[in-house]
Amino acid sequence: MLGRQKFNMIVISSALQPYFDRFCYGYTASGLWLHSIAVATSAWSIAEELDVAVESGSQIYVAGLVHDIGKVVLTDLLRQRGEQIDLERTPDEPPGLVELERETLGICHVEAGVLLAERWNLEPAVVRLVESHHLPDGSADPDAAILHLTDYLLASLGVGYRENTPVETPLVPSALDQLIDSPDFLPLCEQIALRESARSLAIVEALV
Ligand SMILES: [Fe+2]
Ligand SMILES: [Fe+2]
User: Fold this and answer.
1) Rounded distance from Cα 51 to ligand 2 centre (Å)
2) How far is it, in rounded angstroms, from Cα 160 to Cα 33?
3) pTM of this prediction?
4) Domain 20-207 sits in which CATH superfamily?
């Protein structure tokens, strides 16, 4: 039987689909939706694997789903202003995507995502995770480190991204330090990210 927590996750995912499942710069068609589901399910699986965040499994899942929701806001803003983010200007070196967003619009997707998450009255813990998904520096919160690592792994795999989209931000090494000191840890997380990417792709293809 489906657990209550998993059922809640399915309901939340379905409710959010219309916000994500549309064009967004840097992603393929439905790419942002695919990326968001893959980050949410991978982060939750990694948290379970590490036996951390047991209490907050739903928080890390929701944060994984909405961590890039600010890109939806910025996509609308770009359309209203008739502007574009020049994604091919600097494919592999700084400034990364966050800086390009700030240069073009004066705001990045992290800041826009936090504003929207607050407006939606999401839990403060979820808002903090959205805020720290690129730079969990100084955060002792293992959930923040897991979300940051997962987002980085999925971006590295290119799941949902168009070719040549610049890296958003590199992996912050202190995020790994907070998790586990084992040589098997990173390969295990990569395996989980690959597995969840394939599952997420199947879900998205079945729904669109
Ligand atoms: Fe992001
Ligand atoms: Fe992301």
Assistant:
1) 23
2) 8
3) 0.89
4) Hypothetical protein af1432 (1.10.3210.10)
